[in-house]
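Dear colleagues,

I hope this message finds you well. In preparation for our joint manuscript, I am sending the T-complex-associated testis-expressed protein 1 (Phytophthora megakarya) sequence together with its predicted structure, so that both groups work from identical material. I would be grateful if you could confirm receipt.
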Amino acid sequence: MCLKIISDRFRLQPKAQNVPRKFLPEVMARLPLDLDVCLTAPNVTDENYWKRCCLNKTQWKNIQIVDHGLTWKQLFLEKHLQDLLEDFDPSVNDHDHLIAVVKASSEYIFTLEINQLLSHLDLNEIFAQLRNLTRLRVTYGVKQIGMKYERMLFGMKISDATNLSHVIKVTNSLTTLRLPSNLLDDDLLRMLMTGLVKNTSITSLDLSHNKLTNHGARLLSKLLGPESVITTLKLCDNQIHAEGGRYLSRGLKYNTSLVELDLRLNRLTDDGGRMLLEGLVEHISLTNLNLSCNMLGKESAEALAEILSDTLTALRSVDLSSNALNESDGDMLLHGLQQNSAVVALDLRQNTQIPADAECLVKIAQKIRQNEVNRKTSASTTESSRT
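The corresponding structure tokens are as follows:
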């Protein structure tokens, strides 16, 4: 009877510190699932309660606790805040309550993914409370719009870029920033750059599926200098041409931090690919390079073959699929691989001028497989020697 009363009065008296520890699980099991997060976030630590809350949200599909710190409480609070922000309507919802929820949840918010933000909220006030936020993904779009499409509903606005740039400038915790599918152009990027050039915590930057051109590549090259901390840069599906490859090459020549570069689905052409790859000669950290769907040809193949022939190259995986390479270009790449023992992936699929049964493809596959086996054997030997 007492436990039922405590559970029923939790809205009025959310403190349970006077309840003996052995009775707490039963109290938590009786709590209703519609309690305000402002009450439960600071006062309920029982994982079984938060698991019940998560499973009660039938609209959440394929939730994975491993993506949320292996705790149900973190999973619920991160997803709940995501829902609040995505569905927030200033004309209907209470802004003060939103801020109260943010404050109550802030200790448990490490990852936030926002797939629509129709309210175009000023994110400064929100993120000022999220001191532990390390991963942020924002897309200014509309989910399940169906036949009600309106161009004005999509894309980042000038005010959004200004607000985000301030967030980026002052954060010390954010390490991953993803802004895909925002109709982000060079002018909006210029505003974001005022924050990015001052930031020293972001190591992964994703600007995929936007409208960046050569000028945007020139701006981003400023983030790739010798003082850069960026390890992952994703620019796939933009509008970067040959000149953009040249600008990125300038930054890469002095860069020592980048590990992954994704430029697939751009318009580099053979000339731009060559200039970009010239900036990667003797690069000491880049291991993953994706240049698929860029109309690369002979000059790019020659530049890459030179990099591959360097036994000290850091490259491990290269994607050149869906380009304009021919069989002689494949032979050049094979020649560059002869003394290479590091590359374990080289994708040349969908280069229509290279026959599927070409000898160079067969030998490249054999060499890649040999490198992969040798690396696994070496790793096993090293592990055995340690034990």
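For the figure legend, we might mention the following. The longest helix spans residues 359-386. DSSP finds 15 helices and nine strands in the chain.

With kind regards,
E.M.
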